[in-house]
């Protein structure tokens, strides 16, 4: 099975700030649940981890023209990687590996290293990259 790779927050930042990327080249999926409060990466789709399996086929269809899809949760230790693996597994059921590798029509799958916890430390106050950020919530660990 094809697996995901990790992407560093600074690399995702550069990709998002690169104006040459078309609107749907990069799709970001936030799989946090109740811990979604306090901000998110601008433009991210919010699909709580407990709902992902029921939305996965739609997500595969909606992202077929994207170049990259990036999953994240709070720390990207459990839900983010699990979401990426589910996406890859279900995509592989629909399309064989050879087709995925040779045609390059499917997005490369990443997980954001450190999740939103690391992202917000560097880019929480950057309104171009982060939406609905609540600095006080993060400083006082009220998001937990």
From TrEMBL:
UniProt xrefs under Gene3D superfamilies: Rhodanese-like domain
GO CC list: cytoplasm; nucleus
SMART domains the record matches: RHOD
InterPro entries the record matches: Rhodanese-like_dom (IPR001763), Rhodanese-like_dom_sf (IPR036873)
Molecular functions (GO terms): protein tyrosine phosphatase activity
Domain of life: Eukaryota
Domain Rhodanese: 22-128
PANTHER family linked: ARSENICAL-RESISTANCE PROTEIN 2-RELATED, M-PHASE INDUCER PHOSPHATASE DUAL SPECIFICITY PHOSPHATASE CDC25
Protein name per the record: Rhodanese domain-containing protein
Record organism: Pneumocystis wakefieldiae
């Amino acid at each position: 099975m094809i697996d995901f790779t990790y992407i560093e927050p600074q690399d995702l930042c550069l990709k998002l700030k690169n104006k040459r990327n078309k609107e749907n080249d990069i799709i970001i999926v936030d799989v946090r649940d109740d811990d979604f409060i306090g901000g998110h990466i601008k433009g991210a789709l919010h699909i709580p981890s407990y709902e992902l399996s029921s939305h996965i086929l739609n997500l595969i269809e909606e992202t077929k023209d994207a170049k990259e899809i990036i999953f994240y949760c709070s720390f990207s230790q459990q839900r983010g990687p699990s979401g990426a693996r589910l996406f890859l597994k279900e995509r592989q059921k629909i399309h064989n590996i050879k087709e995925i590798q040779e045609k390059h029509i499917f997005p490369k799958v990443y997980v954001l290293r450190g999740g939103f916890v690391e992202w917000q430390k560097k880019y929480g106050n950057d309104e171009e990259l982060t939406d609905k950020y609540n600095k006080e919530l993060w400083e006082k660990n009220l998001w937990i």
